[in-house]
Amino acid sequence: MGSRGQHILLLPFLAHGHLIPFLALARQLQQTKGFTITIVSTPLNIQYLKSTISSDSPNIHLAELPFCSTDHGLPPNAENTENLSPHNVPTLCHASVTLEAPFRRLVHDIMDQEDGGRPPLCIISDVFFGWAVNVAKSVGSVSITFTTCGAYGTAAYMSFWLHLPHLHRDYKEFFKLPWFPDSHRFHCSQLNPLAKVANGTDAWSMFMRLQISLSLGSHGWLCNTVEEIEPLGMEVLRKYLKLPVRAIGPLLPPAALKKPYSSSSFGSNIFKQRAGKKLGISQEKCIEWLNLQGPSSVLYISFGSQNTISASQMMELALGLEGSGKPFIWVLRPPTGFDIKGEFKEEWLPKGFEKRMTESKQGLLVHNWAPQLEILSHESTGAFLSHCGWNSALESLSQGVPIIGLPMGAEQIYNSMMLMEEMGVCEELARGVQSDIVGKEVIMRVIELVMDKKKGKGKEMQKKASIIGGQIRAATKDPGGEDEGSSLVLEALNDFVSVLSDA
Ligand SMILES: *[C@@H]1O[C@H](CO)[C@@H](O)[C@H](O)[C@H]1NC(C)=O
What we know:
The chain is of the alpha/beta class. The protein folds into 2 domains: 7-152 and 217-249 and 477-500, Glycogen Phosphorylase B (Rossmann fold), CATH 3.40.50; 259-474, Rossmann fold. Helices cover 41% and strands 13% of the residues. The protein has helices at 16-29, 43-53, 89-96, 100-113, 131-139, 151-163, 193-196, 203-215, 231-241, 269-273, 283-291, 311-324, 353-360, 372-377, 390-398, 412-421, 440-451, 456-475, 486-502; strands at 7-11, 36-41, 60-64, 122-126, 142-147, 174-175, 186-187, 220-223, 245-247, 298-302, 328-332, 363-367, 381-386, 403-405, 426-428. The strands form 3 sheets. Strands 3-2-1-4-5-8-9 form a 7-stranded parallel beta sheet, sandwiched between helices. α2 links the parallel β2 (36-41) and β3. α12 packs across α17 (440-451). The chain is globular and about 70 Å long. It starts with 6 loop residues before the first strand and ends with a helix. 47% of the residues are buried. Residues 260-276 and 482-486 have low confidence and may be disordered. It binds 2-acetamido-2-deoxy-beta-D-glucopyranose (NAG).
């Protein structure tokens, strides 16, 4: 292979949960002088990144790939899973494969115009964009796959799609997933609806199986996790990918990694990073409310930007919260079947609920979006009722906050299982993708269990969450400092690149 330039191209999948960790990765890379960092995406995602980056990252470049959603049978301006109804997500996935040709042209343009014909140093692509591995290899770049999820979740998700265990003769209520130790059993309820109907020839299976397989051909893998907190997941990945795998996390805003927490370390930046979301409440109001509560007494509830619960589950949750008597902050979104970004209707909650909770100060109801890291890092917060999306889980753990799991889609269900069984920091409201509503009695019982920090399981979970929080913060050598976070990502890149050069 000839010499390579100093250009690093990053190619995230078209979803906020992927763009944000890729951006965090870019921020870490730009700390090192000499590299040119470019994030590549479709026009609207680039616009979004532009609004998010701000002036503090002058060295991150953005490059657009032409993409017209209506050409692919998608609604106008649909370039990100966030703005899509669930049945359109597979269509967007398939459409994303057409980005290969314009991406290839972009790489050649960069080589010709900027780098004297030399290929980019490396191309870091999302596991859902396996086609980028071919592009990287064809021009002589180092190809790196980045999975924005944790190691265990990534391994389980990939193993599922590559093996489709539910089609196997031996498939039973409890089943084994290839790659995982024999003692490790998964439950049939842990297949989400898309997985349940997958037969290997449907559109969703074809996309997943092809992109994952192509990604297995890259030169090295990066995971947004910390080696010490996911020993099993890392072991499984290394053993079966047969590639160098590096944990480079946690990719979180630097302020999240400082301890002891001081609110002054949170500039407005952190929220800008959180994606130009409109907060449903001011940061100050939230903190004011939390300051009124006792240490570790508040339950924080949010299901991320793309998930919501059914109307009847919402009703039960409200009743359970009120019945528990515990203080809570709840980020409310319209229930399933309604526009998740639409107006919230009072009828979705028990009569007079919001008024009662506000007057008694038991609950703070936030519409739309809350300053999540501010809340999680506040000493009054004692647990997080979460869908177990990986970004949320990492944020919670980085602050030593135990989790109550209500996983919904993607690899969330495996995250929640790992958080519970490997880490011991999570209690699930129910196992698997819920077809039944979890009743208020169960909700009250689980809240009681997890929020009791003085004895039993709640105490144990808190202890383990604090230890893991310490490991996460220790993984960043000099958080907020001069060469903040540089270490792990750069070490990994150096390794991957030098292995190739030696070969
Ligand atoms: C697999 O699923 C697809 C889509 O649901 C269907 O069209 C196809 O007939 C199925 N194939 C087999 C072999 O069952």
